[in-house]
Protein backbone atom coordinates (compact mmCIF):
# COMPACT_ATOMS: atom_id res chain seq x y z
CA UNK A 1 0.00 0.00 0.00
CA UNK A 2 0.95 3.65 -0.32
CA UNK A 3 1.58 5.76 2.76
CA UNK A 4 3.23 9.01 3.83
CA UNK A 5 6.24 8.69 6.12
CA UNK A 6 8.20 11.16 8.20
CA UNK A 7 11.69 9.86 7.41
CA UNK A 8 13.34 12.46 9.63
CA UNK A 9 12.11 15.45 11.61
CA UNK A 10 12.09 18.75 9.80
CA UNK A 11 10.12 20.85 7.26
CA UNK A 12 7.21 19.57 5.11
CA UNK A 13 9.66 18.31 2.49
CA UNK A 14 10.62 15.53 4.92
CA UNK A 15 7.29 13.82 4.19
CA UNK A 16 7.69 10.94 1.73
CA UNK A 17 4.89 9.23 -0.21
CA UNK A 18 6.02 5.65 -0.80
CA UNK A 19 5.18 1.96 -0.80
CA UNK A 20 5.06 0.24 2.59
CA UNK A 21 3.90 -3.23 3.73
CA UNK A 22 0.20 -3.76 4.40
CA UNK A 23 -0.58 -3.85 8.14
CA UNK A 24 -2.40 -6.78 9.77
CA UNK A 25 -4.79 -6.38 12.69
CA UNK A 26 -3.81 -7.88 16.02
CA UNK A 27 -6.23 -8.92 18.74
CA UNK A 28 -8.65 -6.09 19.47
CA UNK A 29 -7.72 -4.18 16.31
CA UNK A 30 -9.49 -3.29 13.06
CA UNK A 31 -7.97 -2.85 9.61
CA UNK A 32 -9.61 0.03 7.73
CA UNK A 33 -9.32 0.84 4.04
CA UNK A 34 -9.02 4.60 3.99
CA UNK A 35 -11.62 6.78 2.30
CA UNK A 36 -10.10 9.97 3.67
CA UNK A 37 -8.02 11.24 6.55
CA UNK A 38 -7.46 14.69 7.99
CA UNK A 39 -4.59 16.93 8.95
CA UNK A 40 -4.25 18.08 12.56
CA UNK A 41 -1.75 20.58 13.90
CA UNK A 42 -0.44 17.76 16.08
CA UNK A 43 0.75 16.12 12.82
CA UNK A 44 2.81 19.22 12.03
CA UNK A 45 4.34 19.20 15.51
CA UNK A 46 5.08 15.47 15.27
CA UNK A 47 6.78 15.99 11.90
CA UNK A 48 8.91 18.79 13.34
CA UNK A 49 9.83 16.62 16.32
CA UNK A 50 8.26 18.83 18.96
CA UNK A 51 5.13 16.90 19.89
CA UNK A 52 5.12 14.96 23.16
CA UNK A 53 3.29 11.99 21.65
CA UNK A 54 5.21 11.97 18.37
CA UNK A 55 7.05 8.78 17.42
CA UNK A 56 10.69 8.60 16.46
CA UNK A 57 11.23 8.61 12.65
CA UNK A 58 10.44 6.87 10.46
CA UNK A 59 6.72 6.91 11.21
CA UNK A 60 3.36 7.45 9.51
CA UNK A 61 1.62 10.57 10.87
CA UNK A 62 -2.12 11.12 11.24
CA UNK A 63 -4.63 10.77 14.06
CA UNK A 64 -8.02 9.89 12.55
CA UNK A 65 -9.50 8.13 9.55
CA UNK A 66 -12.77 7.44 7.74
CA UNK A 67 -13.13 4.28 5.69
CA UNK A 68 -14.50 0.75 5.51
CA UNK A 69 -13.56 -2.21 7.67
CA UNK A 70 -11.38 -4.62 5.69
CA UNK A 71 -10.40 -7.11 8.41
CA UNK A 72 -11.03 -7.76 12.10
CA UNK A 73 -8.50 -8.90 14.67
CA UNK A 74 -9.23 -11.63 17.17
CA UNK A 75 -11.84 -10.82 19.79
CA UNK A 76 -13.42 -7.86 17.98
CA UNK A 77 -17.20 -7.72 18.39
CA UNK A 78 -19.79 -5.20 17.20
CA UNK A 79 -18.06 -4.39 13.90
CA UNK A 80 -18.31 -6.07 10.49
CA UNK A 81 -16.18 -6.29 7.37
CA UNK A 82 -17.44 -3.74 4.83
CA UNK A 83 -18.88 -1.46 7.51
CA UNK A 84 -18.27 2.29 7.17
CA UNK A 85 -16.47 3.66 10.22
CA UNK A 86 -14.59 6.61 11.65
CA UNK A 87 -11.69 5.86 13.97
CA UNK A 88 -8.71 7.16 15.86
CA UNK A 89 -5.72 5.51 14.22
CA UNK A 90 -3.43 3.20 16.15
CA UNK A 91 -0.36 3.74 13.99
CA UNK A 92 -0.79 6.74 11.69
CA UNK A 93 -3.60 7.50 9.23
CA UNK A 94 -1.72 8.93 6.21
CA UNK A 95 -2.04 5.59 4.45
CA UNK A 96 -4.30 3.59 2.15
CA UNK A 97 -4.90 1.11 4.99
CA UNK A 98 -4.99 2.01 8.67
CA UNK A 99 -5.07 0.07 11.92
CA UNK A 100 -7.29 1.18 14.80
CA UNK A 101 -8.28 -0.29 18.14
CA UNK A 102 -11.85 -1.56 18.08
CA UNK A 103 -12.67 0.51 21.17
CA UNK A 104 -11.71 3.63 19.18
CA UNK A 105 -13.63 2.67 16.02
CA UNK A 106 -17.18 3.97 15.53
CA UNK A 107 -19.82 3.02 12.93
CA UNK A 108 -20.85 6.06 10.89
CA UNK A 109 -24.61 6.68 10.66
CA UNK A 110 -25.82 6.11 7.08
CA UNK A 111 -27.15 9.66 6.73
CA UNK A 112 -23.76 11.26 7.43
CA UNK A 113 -21.35 11.63 4.48
CA UNK A 114 -17.68 10.78 4.90
CA UNK A 115 -16.54 14.41 5.02
CA UNK A 116 -18.99 15.21 7.80
CA UNK A 117 -17.08 12.96 10.21
CA UNK A 118 -13.62 13.34 8.67
CA UNK A 119 -12.19 15.41 11.50
CA UNK A 120 -12.95 13.08 14.39
CA UNK A 121 -10.14 14.57 16.47
CA UNK A 122 -11.34 18.17 16.14
CA UNK A 123 -15.00 17.23 16.59
CA UNK A 124 -14.38 15.33 19.82
CA UNK A 125 -11.83 17.85 21.11
CA UNK A 126 -14.20 20.78 20.58
CA UNK A 127 -17.06 18.96 22.30
CA UNK A 128 -15.03 17.76 25.27
CA UNK A 129 -13.27 21.08 25.75
CA UNK A 130 -16.67 22.77 25.97
CA UNK A 131 -18.63 20.13 27.89
CA UNK A 132 -16.26 17.92 29.88
CA UNK A 133 -13.38 20.25 30.69
CA UNK A 134 -15.16 23.58 30.28
CA UNK A 135 -18.49 22.68 31.92
CA UNK A 136 -20.23 25.23 29.71
CA UNK A 137 -23.71 26.24 30.82
CA UNK A 138 -26.45 27.83 28.68
CA UNK A 139 -26.14 31.60 28.43
CA UNK A 140 -22.44 31.75 29.27
CA UNK A 141 -20.01 33.94 27.34
CA UNK A 142 -17.35 31.95 25.46
CA UNK A 143 -14.07 33.00 23.84
CA UNK A 144 -12.57 30.61 21.27
CA UNK A 145 -8.92 31.18 20.39
CA UNK A 146 -7.76 30.20 16.88
CA UNK A 147 -11.41 30.33 15.87
CA UNK A 148 -10.76 29.83 12.15
CA UNK A 149 -8.88 26.57 12.62
CA UNK A 150 -10.20 23.01 12.72
CA UNK A 151 -11.08 22.81 16.41
CA UNK A 152 -11.88 26.52 16.67
CA UNK A 153 -14.33 26.60 13.77
CA UNK A 154 -16.08 23.57 15.22
CA UNK A 155 -16.11 24.93 18.77
CA UNK A 156 -17.74 28.22 17.71
CA UNK A 157 -20.64 26.29 16.17
CA UNK A 158 -20.90 23.84 19.06
CA UNK A 159 -20.93 26.60 21.65
CA UNK A 160 -23.91 28.18 19.90
CA UNK A 161 -25.64 24.83 19.39
CA UNK A 162 -25.24 24.01 23.08
CA UNK A 163 -26.79 27.29 24.20
CA UNK A 164 -23.92 29.69 24.81
CA UNK A 165 -24.72 33.38 25.06
CA UNK A 166 -22.13 35.60 23.40
CA UNK A 167 -19.42 33.72 21.49
CA UNK A 168 -16.22 35.55 20.59
CA UNK A 169 -13.72 34.23 18.07
CA UNK A 170 -10.06 35.27 18.09
CA UNK A 171 -8.06 35.02 14.85
CA UNK A 172 -4.54 35.85 13.71
CA UNK A 173 -5.71 37.90 10.71
CA UNK A 174 -8.87 39.89 10.13
CA UNK A 175 -9.14 38.34 6.67
CA UNK A 176 -10.52 35.29 8.53
CA UNK A 177 -13.20 37.31 10.32
CA UNK A 178 -15.97 36.83 7.76
CA UNK A 179 -15.47 33.05 7.86
CA UNK A 180 -15.75 32.97 11.67
CA UNK A 181 -18.78 35.27 11.74
CA UNK A 182 -20.44 32.89 9.29
CA UNK A 183 -20.07 30.14 11.89
CA UNK A 184 -22.19 32.10 14.35
CA UNK A 185 -19.62 34.13 16.30
CA UNK A 186 -21.07 37.34 17.74
CA UNK A 187 -17.74 39.16 17.38
CA UNK A 188 -14.37 38.35 15.84
CA UNK A 189 -11.19 39.85 17.28
CA UNK A 190 -7.45 39.71 16.62
CA UNK A 191 -4.95 39.00 19.35
CA UNK A 192 -3.70 42.56 19.59
CA UNK A 193 -5.32 44.10 22.66
CA UNK A 194 -7.55 41.03 22.97
CA UNK A 195 -8.25 41.22 26.70
CA UNK A 196 -9.17 44.91 26.64
CA UNK A 197 -11.48 44.42 23.66
CA UNK A 198 -13.26 41.45 25.27
CA UNK A 199 -13.75 43.41 28.48
CA UNK A 200 -15.18 46.34 26.50
CA UNK A 201 -17.66 44.07 24.73
CA UNK A 202 -18.78 42.47 28.00
CA UNK A 203 -19.15 45.66 30.07
CA UNK A 204 -15.95 44.72 31.94
CA UNK A 205 -17.44 41.38 33.04
CA UNK A 206 -15.21 39.15 30.92
CA UNK A 207 -16.02 35.71 29.54
CA UNK A 208 -17.04 32.59 31.44
CA UNK A 209 -15.18 30.07 29.30
CA UNK A 210 -12.09 30.25 27.11
CA UNK A 211 -10.85 27.51 24.78
CA UNK A 212 -7.12 27.97 24.15
CA UNK A 213 -5.00 25.90 21.76
CA UNK A 214 -2.38 28.65 21.35
CA UNK A 215 -1.02 29.29 24.90
CA UNK A 216 1.96 31.63 25.36
CA UNK A 217 0.98 35.31 25.38
CA UNK A 218 -2.51 34.45 24.11
CA UNK A 219 -3.08 32.34 27.24
CA UNK A 220 -2.03 35.26 29.45
CA UNK A 221 -4.35 37.63 27.58
CA UNK A 222 -7.17 35.16 28.14
CA UNK A 223 -6.65 35.08 31.88
CA UNK A 224 -6.95 38.86 31.98
CA UNK A 225 -10.49 38.74 30.59
CA UNK A 226 -11.69 35.58 32.35
CA UNK A 227 -14.72 36.30 34.55
CA UNK A 228 -15.03 35.24 38.20
CA UNK A 229 -15.97 31.53 38.35
CA UNK A 230 -14.66 31.26 34.77
CA UNK A 231 -12.74 28.33 33.26
CA UNK A 232 -9.86 28.49 30.83
CA UNK A 233 -9.32 25.19 29.00
CA UNK A 234 -5.85 24.64 27.52
CA UNK A 235 -5.63 21.93 24.87
CA UNK A 236 -2.59 22.95 22.82
CA UNK A 237 0.33 25.31 22.42
CA UNK A 238 0.42 26.21 18.73
CA UNK A 239 2.53 29.28 19.54
CA UNK A 240 5.31 26.98 20.69
CA UNK A 241 5.36 28.69 24.07
CA UNK A 242 3.77 27.68 27.39
CA UNK A 243 1.37 29.99 29.17
CA UNK A 244 2.34 31.26 32.63
CA UNK A 245 0.16 32.54 35.45
CA UNK A 246 -0.01 33.34 39.14
CA UNK A 247 -2.25 31.25 41.35
CA UNK A 248 -3.45 34.10 43.57
CA UNK A 249 -6.09 35.48 41.15
CA UNK A 250 -7.49 31.99 40.69
CA UNK A 251 -8.50 31.36 44.28
CA UNK A 252 -9.54 34.95 44.92
CA UNK A 253 -12.18 34.82 42.17
CA UNK A 254 -12.74 31.05 41.96
CA UNK A 255 -11.29 30.78 38.47
CA UNK A 256 -9.95 27.55 36.99
CA UNK A 257 -7.30 26.60 34.45
CA UNK A 258 -8.03 23.13 33.06
CA UNK A 259 -5.95 20.97 30.75
CA UNK A 260 -7.49 18.68 28.13
CA UNK A 261 -6.02 16.23 25.60
CA UNK A 262 -7.97 13.89 23.33
CA UNK A 263 -4.71 12.02 22.78
CA UNK A 264 -4.35 11.33 26.49
CA UNK A 265 -7.89 9.97 26.60
CA UNK A 266 -7.15 7.75 23.59
CA UNK A 267 -4.13 6.29 25.36
CA UNK A 268 -5.41 6.11 28.93
CA UNK A 269 -9.22 5.99 28.92
CA UNK A 270 -10.29 5.15 25.34
CA UNK A 271 -13.70 3.83 26.36
CA UNK A 272 -14.61 7.28 27.73
CA UNK A 273 -14.60 8.82 24.23
CA UNK A 274 -17.53 6.86 22.82
CA UNK A 275 -20.26 8.98 24.50
CA UNK A 276 -18.64 12.11 23.09
CA UNK A 277 -18.48 10.63 19.59
CA UNK A 278 -22.16 9.70 19.81
CA UNK A 279 -23.05 13.20 21.00
CA UNK A 280 -21.06 14.74 18.14
CA UNK A 281 -22.71 12.46 15.57
CA UNK A 282 -26.10 13.56 16.92
CA UNK A 283 -25.22 17.25 16.50
CA UNK A 284 -24.01 16.58 12.96
CA UNK A 285 -27.16 14.64 12.04
CA UNK A 286 -29.35 17.47 13.38
CA UNK A 287 -27.46 19.96 11.22
CA UNK A 288 -26.51 22.04 14.26
CA UNK A 289 -22.79 21.61 13.61
CA UNK A 290 -20.95 21.19 10.32
CA UNK A 291 -17.30 20.33 9.82
CA UNK A 292 -15.79 23.18 7.83
CA UNK A 293 -13.56 21.85 5.04
CA UNK A 294 -11.01 24.43 3.96
CA UNK A 295 -8.88 22.40 1.52
CA UNK A 296 -8.54 18.96 0.00
CA UNK A 297 -5.33 17.23 -1.12
CA UNK A 298 -4.31 13.84 -2.42
CA UNK A 299 -2.26 11.82 0.06
CA UNK A 300 0.75 12.26 -2.19
CA UNK A 301 0.42 16.03 -1.64
CA UNK A 302 0.76 15.82 2.14
CA UNK A 303 3.78 18.13 2.13
CA UNK A 304 1.74 20.86 0.40
CA UNK A 305 -1.06 20.36 2.92
CA UNK A 306 1.38 20.75 5.82
CA UNK A 307 2.87 23.87 4.25
CA UNK A 308 -0.61 25.39 3.94
CA UNK A 309 -1.38 24.73 7.61
CA UNK A 310 1.95 26.18 8.70
CA UNK A 311 1.30 29.33 6.67
CA UNK A 312 -1.57 30.14 9.09
CA UNK A 313 -3.66 31.14 6.06
CA UNK A 314 -5.87 28.06 6.03
CA UNK A 315 -9.35 27.99 7.52
CA UNK A 316 -11.37 24.98 8.64
CA UNK A 317 -10.21 21.40 8.14
CA UNK A 318 -7.65 20.13 5.65
CA UNK A 319 -8.47 16.69 4.24
CA UNK A 320 -6.28 14.10 2.55
CA UNK A 321 -7.65 11.57 0.05
CA UNK A 322 -5.79 8.37 -0.93
TrEMBL record:
Recorded superkingdom: Bacteria
EC number(s) recorded for this UniProt protein: 1.3.1.103
Record-level Gene Ontology MF annotations: 2-chloroacrylate reductase activity; zinc ion binding
Keywords of the record: Oxidoreductase
Keyword Oxidoreductase among UniProt keywords: yes
SMART domains: PKS_ER
PROSITE patterns attached to this UniProt entry: QOR_ZETA_CRYSTAL (PS01162)
Class of this enzyme: oxidoreductase
Record protein name field: 2-haloacrylate reductase
Amino acid sequence: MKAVLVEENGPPEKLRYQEVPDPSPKAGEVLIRTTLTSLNFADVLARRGGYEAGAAPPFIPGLDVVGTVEALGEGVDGLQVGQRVAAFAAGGSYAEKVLAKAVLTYPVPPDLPDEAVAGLTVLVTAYNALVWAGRMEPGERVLVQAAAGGVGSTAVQMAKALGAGLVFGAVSRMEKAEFVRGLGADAVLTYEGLAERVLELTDQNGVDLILDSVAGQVFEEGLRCLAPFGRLVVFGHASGQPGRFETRPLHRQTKAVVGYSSGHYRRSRPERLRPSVEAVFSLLRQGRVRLQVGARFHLSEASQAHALMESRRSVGKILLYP
